[in-house]
Amino acid sequence: MDFRFTEDQLSIQAIARDFAQKRIAPVAAEFDHKGEFPLANIQEMGQLGLMGIEVPTEYGGAGMDSISYVLAMIEIAAADCAHSTIMSVNNTLYCNGLLKFGTHEQKLAYVAPIASGQAIGAFALTEPQSGSDATAMRCRATKQADGSFLINGKKSWITSGPVAKYILLFAMTEPEKGARGITAFIIDTDRAGFGRGKTEPKLGIRASATCEIEFADYHASAAEVIGQEGEGFKIAMGVLDAGRIGIASQAVGLSRAAYEATIVYSQERKAFGQSIGSFQMTQAKIADMKCKLDASHLLTLRAAWAKQQAQEHGGRFSTEAAVAKLTASESAMWITHQAVQIHGGMGYSKEMPLERYFRDAKITEIYEGTSEIQRMVIARNETGLR
């Protein structure tokens, strides 16, 4: 296996690292404290090509590959998880879905402004009563005589919902068909019939705005259907496979930041006349942190490589994506926990970023498929049993 990165991959990694350390890291704590959406930074990230890394240049993106996306995501997440969450939704949930299933005209209209950072995209699948069980959705899109649709219902926990211009929405068009009765639509949030609820007060990723959205006789034309009618569930699941690689990357970046801070602190902090990093229990924690971090990193790169192979030769990469997401997210939770423990009282204080890392890590085990769902996906794919 060749572990060398290409010049293009190293270039986007360097761009992301430079921006993350100079523009994001210095303000991350402030944005987290205020729960304020970092619009100016996100727009600049779009100008740098970070909001549409795998989007072809003709649609406003950087025209790069999945490995490039992982490398860039890790750098942004190492500075702030909230910024990387916005980046992940734009890249893998919104843009990826439209690139795979949208028409050329739809890509020009709805991908280009998002990939270039001129506007924000969102993905709406979850509802108040249906999270992991997406087929239980109640949001309805009723077909009209002219081929258009009237959409009514609610969606919840919509990342970037308060600021999104366009949203990739999934709604029931034929409820009696279950999963085969779901259709995907592009939503223009400036249109009548669309409304936003309150911004959710979250434990972590607080600068990433999240809200409930509502539809009351929202009119969507036939030209705003993504893919074919009834293909929505297939589209959503395929998009989530890619999204899980983004969350795995986020977890790796967060873990790396916590690990690196711990190494420095263990060398500098003295107790009983010596550095705490010389104590065997501290060393054991550091060794385990390193192993979990490296395993997560390599599994995430493997998933990105599998995605590229699937794009070029066909096939699925759902198992590799689920393995990466499960391993990286649970490792992030464990690593940040140990990092706080090693830092002691300072790890619990907002004077250092460790407590933010700890709060941010939890969401990686929940969104885009909980750890329980990842285990189910992996086991079902391995055994062929349902």
TrEMBL record:
Its EC number is 1.3.8.11, 3.13.1.4. InterPro entries: Acyl-CoA_DH_CS, Acyl-CoA_Oxase/DH_mid-dom, Acyl-CoA_Oxase/DH_mid-dom_sf, AcylCo_DH-like_C, AcylCo_DH/oxidase_C, AcylCoA_DH/ox_N, AcylCoA_DH/ox_N_sf, AcylCoA_DH/oxidase_NM_dom_sf. Residues 122-217 form the Acyl-CoA oxidase/dehydrogenase middle domain. Belongs to the acyl-CoA dehydrogenase family. PANTHER family: ACYL-COA DEHYDROGENASE, ISOVALERYL-COA DEHYDROGENASE, MITOCHONDRIAL-RELATED. This is 3-sulfinopropanoyl-CoA desulfinase. Signal peptide: none annotated. GO terms for molecular function: acyl-CoA dehydrogenase activity; flavin adenine dinucleotide binding. Residues 6-118 form the Acyl-CoA dehydrogenase/oxidase N-terminal domain. Its cofactor is FAD. It holds the Pfam family Acyl-CoA_dh_1. Keywords: FAD, Flavoprotein, Oxidoreductase. It comes from the Bacteria.
